[in-house]
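> tool_call: predict_assembly(chains=two)
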Amino acid sequence: MEKMTLSSKAREAQSANERWMRYLGFPGGILLFLVILYLPAGAGASASAQAGAACFALALVWWVTEPFPTYVTSLVLMFLLLVTRTSNAKAIMDVLGMEVIWLNLLAFILSSMLVKTRLAKRMALWLVLRFGHKASWALLAFVVLQLVLAPLIPATAARCVMTLPLMIVVATIYGSTEATPNNFGKNMMLLNLGCISVLSSVTMTGSSANLIAVGLIQNMGGHRVYYMDWMMLGAPVAIVTMLLMWILGQKLLFRIKPEEQVPQLEGGLGLVREQYESMGPLSFQEKKAIAIFGMVLFLWMTDIFHMRWFGVEISAPFAALLGAVVVLFPRWGILSWAEADIPWHLLIFSAGAYAGGLALDDTGAAEWGVRMLFGGMNLKGVPFGFTYTVVISVMMYSHLLTTSKTVRTLIMIPIIITMAKALGWNPLSLALPAALCIDWVVGLPISGKPNVILFSTNQYTVGDNFKHGMLTCTIGVIILVLSGATWFHWLGITPAFWAVAP
Amino acid sequence: MRSLRLGAALLAASALAFATELPSYQVRLTAARDGSAQAMATVTVGHCPAGLLVLPLGFSAPEDLKLEEAPPGTRLELGARDTVSSLRFQLPVALDAPVTLRFSFRVKQPLQALKTAPGEKGALPAGSRLFRHGFVNTQETPIGVYRLEFLFPEGLIAQAIREQLPKLEKQEAGPRVLLSVLDGQQAATLTYANVHQGDATSMAVELVPRQRSLGWLVAGVILAGLYLFYFRDLVAKKTP
């Protein structure tokens, strides 16, 4: 657990199907690119929008089938955007300097601090010891653990890598191994998968995509979303959903037999206790890490007051930057630069994805596409509640079609804002609830990085993942719709559900 | 003193009653393959006193200006030209109810190919043409909605909208320039509402030939073929 790294090595194709997918993915991507590029020009789309859509489709096929590592595909995409005249060089290159890339980079420095000081490990062990005497409570312990880690470590892959060893140990304690997986193991892995992704929507800094959505809502919708605004909406929805999934997973989807409710291996919990006790009292370095993380968290949570206190707003990346300065400070800090585990390949992947997403936005391709999608439904003049339900459902389930939260955000949120304006609704009323769905990438093993990592444990099948993910998303849609009609309305975010725009 | 106030109030009321209103100003510019373009403008005038009505025009050198529809006796001539053109309507009677003024004119070479000096970097590739249009309300009367519809010549499509100003206000539904099809031709429509004196709007659209280069097809087929050949070991049956 101390050796958390985010490998940049290309993932080896496992099965024959995967190898064929990889082999055919390359020409498949090119074929799709050519088909879209040579299609008769759409009335509402420019040639650059068409080229942008073609480039993005190629990248999407390659990201899913992986004939190259994802970051190489991102680099190819950036080059294609230039030579097809979809974007200019400056627009493409500027992406690497975006706020979200900086936040990613700085978050990984802070994560490295938690791993090096073993503070993350201590927290995880403590939580399991407190809750892990029965299968159901052990599962709940992980819900709590992921809830605690989510605001501390924005990178979902890092959270997954950090807690995976514990998941495997606890699954083994309850008799679920790679060779003989049982329903406890399925519940353990899939509940964690859900928690890692869904609980990222508790805070706006829970993922980079959340921050992008906040930026889009501000720039395009004209509404500033503060940390606490997001949390008041996102936290109840995400937490209630995961608590329901904790119950429904073990009672409905993958029923845990009474005999599986008790630890199956001798010394399981004892091993956890042994590890915890061997850590001894909090070290000075751990206390320093708590102080640094506390400072960053404090700045993230109080951004609404910064202007009054400091005369300047310290945005989320700059709060993390201040934390990184302290962490990396010679003699008084915790890490040296070499010890900071920064996955540059993920940043390059992200940069390419953002460049592609922004190109779709700038050329009007995304807007044209989603306008076609939503336009077919003719939402003009219908009650707000109906429009809201359609938007939430499309946003929630659209994660099955993409592998990047960021790209999905960059496509969907601008369209939803534009659509809300066109329909006469406040953009915030549709865009913010839709943004809460961004992190719910739980339907397929390729839907997110934690999904890929957890799928490698061989504790569940693609079908299990799909069932669990779809139930999670459906519960999420129901809760978001109920919240939209009540809680969000009381907070002044949504109008009455039966209201019709003038 | 009292009668003075009454007089002033009556004057203000009559001025308000005769304040000119321009709810809409729409221009449709249809470009032909030979490079010229024909414009048809439709202006709705609400209340307007008799006499001179000056309207701004977003084209610097209109030709063959012709009044197509107006109250009888109305005369139209091009106003004094500096950098911005204007139109001068002589209305024989005051207009109490909304009236449509329609006029047409010809625009020479609205599409430009950017020329580059020897040694200078080109801004647009060969075959690209740029259409620019700017409109400033130079008159006191605010315009409800200004709209320019530019119908592209046959064989050309929009590569990109290079400029669309001013930026949308928070409460405005976009986009400022919308691509669509009008009368069977691809068109770009610039829309700007509540245009007060001094307000300006503009758009620039780059047009390219509809036919795409076959280079992409050739390159794609070659790359796909090379990959399928050199990476065939990915799916080759492994010998024990």
